[in-house]
UniProtKB/TrEMBL annotation:
<protein>
    <submittedName>
        <fullName>Carbohydrate ABC transporter substrate-binding protein, CUT1 family (TC 3.A.1.1.-)</fullName>
    </submittedName>
</protein>
<dbReference type="Pfam" id="PF01547">
    <property type="entry name" value="SBP_bac_1"/>
</dbReference>
<feature type="signal peptide">
    <location>
        <begin position="1"/>
        <end position="20"/>
    </location>
</feature>
<keyword id="KW-0732">Signal</keyword>
<dbReference type="InterPro" id="IPR050490">
    <property type="entry name" value="Bact_solute-bd_prot1"/>
</dbReference>
<dbReference type="InterPro" id="IPR006059">
    <property type="entry name" value="SBP"/>
</dbReference>
Length: 429
């Protein structure tokens, strides 16, 4: 998965930012002046740790940080939350990976009253897509802290050589442009993207939404064989089959697809914006000087890329220190900290930081514009919103592989839909 590249090592590091103290810290029964915060290995975490002395001085609280790699984080949550432990106050979690499980099992505190009462903090400033992903049954269960959107990476020089004056604005134009590049530059693929059954699901999702489909319909039934979904599978798979790299494999995740693009072997590439430095860093990319970015091309339903929170902060429902836990969350996700994170290269979920020139100054201008466009109509999920995410991705990703290899995409979608509906029925029991 792409996020694993951002997480780093899974070595546990416990950073005690102050001595535990008891009493008087909040209105909760058993409240403490020490807030216990569990965070993932991430640039966001390092930035927050560096700013903690400011929060501690301002609040009079102490923050004890437990920092873990992605796998260890999951293991700890599995053990402690299942046991009803109260020694976790604030939790950094992945809304699209475990958010539904945590909410359904009542591991996360309902933040409705807290977000409503924090007027200066301004919950309305958060983008709709990320808020959607951190909401369960109409209740905010977390606050998004890091976002991702899908954008179009492209080679400016290859477009110019093909006589194209601007990047494609629609999927139809993208298809035409890939053929034009191939005709003008033999040996270079027109398009590359993820091809692996599970890894491709997240990037395929923007194609699905832009064709007017989704993984489930409004009643919660499997919808991966709708007319729109079948068109999306055929288009995505056909683009790679007909205009992708020669002898393309069907097990590529982002590192393999990115490598093809950065080695100068493809003209267009749809991918998460969070990975852009792999394409613009001269140490990693042979085409760093010629890379451009554009909004995700529009399909029949418009341009509807995913706009998701890769990470969020939640409060343990069993914490006895929820008032002080919220003080930390409110500070860590406030406008000042979000802007500071954004300036360091961590894309935030607040609308205001993307409107602030200081918030986009470190991004390529065309990428910042593409991201801003993506947040307007972005969809808040890039995979099925289920408990067993990995299993669901395997099911809905199979038609992608079948389409790439030239099989009947519509038939594959019908087969996948039946399997996905059974999966949904089983999970609902």
């Amino acid at each position: 998965m792409r996020r694993r590249s951002m997480i780093g090592t899974s070595l546990a590091v416990v950073a005690a930012m102050g001595l535990a103290g008891c009493g008087g810290g909040g209105e909760d029964s058993g409240a403490s002046t020490t807030v216990r915060v569990t965070l993932a290995n991430h640039v966001w975490t390092e930035n927050i740790k560096a700013a903690l002395p400011e929060f501690e001085k301002q609040s009079g609280l102490k923050v004890e940080v437990t920092q873990l790699g992605e796998d260890q984080l999951s293991d700890q949550y599995n053990v402690k939350l299942n046991a009803g432990s109260s020694d976790l106050d604030v939790m950094m979690y992945r809304p699209l990976q475990e958010g539904k499980l945590f909410a359904r099992n009542k591991y996360l505190a309902d933040l409705s009253d807290k977000v409503k009462s924090a007027a200066d903090w301004d919950f309305a400033d958060f983008q709709a897509g990320p808020v959607e992903a951190t909401t369960y049954e109409g209740k905010p269960m977390g606050v998004p802290i890091i976002t991702e959107q899908e954008v179009l990476y492209y080679r400016k020089d290859l477009l110019a050589k093909a006589g194209l004056t601007a990047p494609p604005k629609t999927l139809d134009e993208l298809k035409t442009a890939t053929a034009a590049v191939q005709a003008s530059t033999p040996g270079v693929a027109g398009f590359v993207a993820r091809t692996g059954k599970s890894p491709a699901v997240t990037q395929f999702s923007s194609f699905l939404y832009s064709f007017g489909g989704d993984f489930v319909d409004t009643s919660g039934k499997a919808a991966v064989n709708s007319a729109a979904a079948k068109q999306a599978y055929a288009f995505y798979g056909g683009l790679i089959k007909d205009h992708g790299p020669a002898n393309v494999s069907t097990d590529m995740s982002w590192p393999e697809a990115m490598a093809i693009f950065t080695q100068g072997k493809a003209a267009f590439y749809t991918e998460a914006n969070s990975l852009y430095k792999n394409a613009t860093d001269p140490a990693k990319s042979k085409v760093s000087e010629t890379v451009g970015f554009a909004p995700f091309p529009a399909g029949p339903a418009g341009s509807k890329p995913y706009n998701i929170p890769s990470w969020a902060l939640g409060i343990n429902a069993n914490s006895e220190n929820q008032t002080n836990a919220w003080k930390f969350v409110e500070w860590a996700t406030g406008k000042q900290q979000t802007l500071a994170q954004q300036k360091s290269g961590v894309p935030g979920a607040r609308t205001s930081v993307w409107a602030d020139p200081a918030g986009t100054a470190t991004y390529p201008k065309d990428l910042a514009e593409a991201i801003a466009a993506s947040t307007q109509n972005g969809v808040g999920h890039d995979r099925p919103l289920v408990v067993k995410v990995a299993e669901a991705r395997e099911i809905v990703g199979q038609p992608i592989v079948d389409a790439i290899t030239g099989k009947d995409a519509a038939a594959a979608a019908d087969t996948a839909n039946a399997a996905f509906q059974k999966f949904l029925d089983d999970e609902a029991r």
